[in-house]
User: What shape does this take?
Amino acid sequence: MINAATIAKMKKGVRIVNAARGELINEADLAAAIKSGHVAGAALDVFAEEPPKNCPLIGLPNVITTPHVAGSTAEAQEELGTQVAVQVRDYLVEGVIRNAVNLPALSPEQYRRVRPYLALAERLGSLVSQAAATRPRASASVMRGKSPKSARIFCAALFLLECSTPFSMKK
Assistant: This one.
């Protein structure tokens, strides 16, 4: 429905929102129109290919993209709520965090193996944040012995988080 021909008929500076179906918009034509300035911007939560892999719109500065949560039905909301409740229970009972942004998922066994490293990284980061006059801009660490790769990733993330948190904000 929305392609180069239909976009050409629109007023210059139009903004396009699509939260219905990805197939409604020719993504390459919309990207070209945005780059040319005919279309001022776009907001999308659906794409021709889900999840979007080679979408020409992603990364354009005047395009907002968000994940499509097709959870508008009561059944979908109930399932989503159940999944969240299970994840919260897993964290409270086993200390396992699932579906965290920018961190790998760990099984309960992997988390048990990584937990001591995380406690050390948190304490070291807290120490640095209290002792340093300014926040560190970078850090380097070396882990010796047998440590799972996931431990190194989590520890680096936690150390940097703790270093960047001012002492006055800590518990």
Summary: The beta strands are 14-18, 39-44, 63-65.
